[in-house]
Write a structure and sequence with these properties.
globular, 114 residues
């Protein structure tokens, strides 16, 4: 998968839909900002939690959004692999496959093409 292209298309689709439901889109954005703000947990930790949920729910676009955030927050490949390891443990076979996709996304967004 070309993750960068996929996310550009996903963001365009979300923007189009958001114009149809502006109040809901505004509320969702506000909720996201509040959820990601630093508190007892920092934003990076919260993004790892979100990545685990994205893997468990098999949401490609969610994986893309949260992996990009983790790259921005300077998560290392080792940290991502450990988080995905836990996701795989908790979610079994389907999470194993989506964890592999998430690692591919990490490598593409971090330009860490091994």
């Amino acid at each position: 998968m070309n993750w960068k292209k996929f996310m550009v298309e996903t963001e365009a689709n979300i923007a189009t839909f958001s114009k149809e439901i502006p109040q809901t889109a505004k509320g969702f954005a506000s909720m996201g900002a509040a959820a990601k703000s630093n508190g007892a947990l920092d934003e990076k930790t919260k993004e790892f939690i979100a990545l685990g949920i994205a893997v468990a729910t098999r949401c490609d676009s969610c994986i893309g959004f949260h992996i990009r955030s983790l790259v921005r927050l300077k998560a290392t490949r080792e940290e991502v692999c450990e988080a995905l390891e836990m996701s795989t443990f908790m979610g079994g076979g389907p999470s194993f496959a989506f964890s592999a996709k998430a690692l591919e996304a990490y490598d593409e967004f971090s330009d860490n093409n091994l």
